[in-house]
C-alpha cells in the first residue's frame, strides 16, 4: 500500500520529467524543471540542463500522422487494383 505522502486524494502524483540529456542517455535524472540548478548528470558532463522534451513529442506525433496517411494511400491503391 502506498503512503499518503505519495498520493493526493487517492490519485498518484506523476514523476518528475527527466532533463533532455538524461532522457537521451536513458539515465535517472535527479533534477527538477522548476529548479534553476542543473541535475548531477549535467553537472558532471558540464552541459546545459534543459527541459524541452515536448518538442520531441510533437515531432514524433507528426511523423506518425504522416506514416498513417502514407499507409492509407498505399492500402487504397491495393484495394482498388484487386
How would you describe this structure to a colleague?
With 82 residues, this protein is mainly alpha-helical. It folds into two domains: 14-51, CD2-Gal4; 53-82. It is 49% helix and 5% strand. The protein has helices at residues 20-25, 40-45, 54-81; strands at 7-8, 11-12. Strand 1 and strand 2 form a beta hairpin.
Provide the fold topology.
Layout: E1 7-8, E2 11-12, H1 20-25, H2 40-45, H3 54-81
Antiparallel strand pairs: 1-2
Largest sheet, described in full?
2 strands, antiparallel
Number of strands: 2
And the CATH topology of the largest domain?
CD2-Gal4
Mean pLDDT across residues: 81
* Terminal-residue CA separation: 57 Å
How many separate domains make up the residues?
Answer: 2
> So what's the overall shape?
elongated
Q: List the helices and strands in order.
A: EEHHH
Return the structural class: mainly alpha
Proportion of residues in helical segments: 40-55%
Would you identify the regions where 5 or more consecutive residues have pLDDT less than 50?
none
Radius of gyration: 21 Å
CATH architecture type of the largest domain = Irregular
Q: What proportion of the residues form beta strands (DSSP E)?
A: under 5%
Strand neighbour order, sheet with most strands: 1-2
What would you say about this model in short?
The protein is 49% helix and 5% strand.
Salient structural properties:
CD2-Gal4; 2 domains; elongated
